Amino acid sequence: MSGLDNIKPIHNWFSKKLDTHPIVISGPCSAESEEQLVSTAKALNDTEQVQIFRAGVWKPRTRPNSFEGRGLDALQWLNTVKQETGLLTMVEVASPKHVEMCLRHNVDILWIGARTTSNPFSVQELASALQGMNMPVMVKNPINPDINLWIGALERIHKAGISKLAAIHRGFYPFEKTILRNIPKWEIPIELKSRFHNLPIICDPSHIAGSRKYIHEMAQKAMDLNMDGLMIESHICPDEALSDADQQLTPEDLNELLRGLVCRLHVV
Length: 268
Ligand code: PEP
Ligand code: MN
Hints:
The protein is of the alpha/beta class. It contains ten helices and eight strands. It has helices at 34-47, 72-85, 96-104, 114-117, 120-130, 147-159, 187-195, 205-209, 215-224, 251-259, and strands spanning 23-27, 52-54, 88-92, 109-112, 137-140, 165-169, 201-203, 229-233. Bound molecules: phosphoenolpyruvate (PEP) and manganese (II) ion. The site of phosphoenolpyruvate (PEP) has 9 residues, from helix 4. This is chorismate mutase.
């Protein structure tokens, strides 16, 4: 039984071809200011290695009293990024209101975060808001290593008529003290791919690593497994980031990391 049978290859999602391997999504954990967003995007664009610019606009913080994002203002800054760089833009949505605002502000791709994927009620509300929209959506794995919860979220979005669908592997919460922030459990994305061959899988080595020094190793592992793309957080000045400061790279360091990856020849 496959509930994910009509998935469009990621290379055909837009008229501008996304034909690189890997597809690279990068940008800050959070949109903080127009200056931070535009300068990061321009530097990323100059590397000619990034196709999609990500930024968190509403941040799902685990604990209260943390930076929760700039909301509507950030959506306007993302439009400036689009105009000035031509990069595609990508934003996390957690409610129908977020979906509506992103659609109104010409965001190109939506993603569902790990905390939201964990809640079928929230995913179903998002699916209803997306019904009949031809929007590309990527779904991160849930916080806990429950492959069915991940598949269920993908199926709910797919049932709403979304064929531009991809999964993002960002690792799983370990209660124990571990070197990595989230344990990769590579067998889970491997099983997902074996069950749904057409489903593009993007790896997010930043949230797996939690620290700059392990990002390369995780990204290389994703390439060894022939994943379709990478989502890597970057910031014009990582040490000053308002969220996930330890795991963001400068655009220059990202460029170097990508150039150091050994990628299999990809047959599209
Ligand atoms: C993010 O991408 O910044 C984020 C909040 O990720 P996750 O949902 O994987 O924790
Ligand atoms: Mn983050």
